[in-house]
Amino acid sequence: MRALLAYGGLGLAALAIDQWIKYLVETRLPMQEPVDVLPFLAWFRTYNTGISFSWLSGMADWQLIAMALAVTLFIGWLAWRSPPRQVFARAGFALIVAGAAGNLVDRISYGHVVDYVLFHTGNWAFAVFNFADACISVGAALVILEELVEWRRSRAESPPAG
Fold first, then answer.
1. pTM for this structure?
2. Range of the domain at 23
3. Is 133 a catalytic residue?
4. Burial class of residue 75 (count of CB atoms within 10 Å of its CB; 0-12, 13-18, 19+)
5. What's the total number of domains in the chain?
6. pLDDT digit string (tens) for 118-155?
7. Active-site residue among 18, 36, 106, 133?
8. Strand 113-119 relative to strand 41-48: parallel, antiparallel, unpaired?
9. Is residue 162 part of a domain?
């Protein structure tokens, strides 16, 4: 029960931070005008009407909402099935669910996702993203890290065949 509260707290904190930042972006950052932070980083408010990299932007909102709910429920199910010793994976699942929920709140509230972080160089720019996207990416990296640790652990515990 304590672990559930810890992972739930992590997820709720990430969701709250995401929504707070998006509120600040919506109320204080001009639309599609870069505000340089570093030579390769700018705040840049824009809207994503699709999913990652604006993929599926032609889909109806209800379809994107249904897809996001299905994926979030599936990730929640994976988290529930993960063994208690998989701390990195469970934290990763909490971040993935929080990020998906943050973007889902946007989609339901506005019909789009608020994005605002832009990595760029003089002639190249990465897709604009947000804190929720970063939570999803970091969460996925933690799940992969846990899988690698588990794989190495199982190889170390199993004697070589032969």
1. 0.85
2. 2-157
3. yes
4. buried
5. 1
6. 999 878 888 899 999 999 999 999 999 999 988 888 87
7. 133
8. antiparallel
9. no
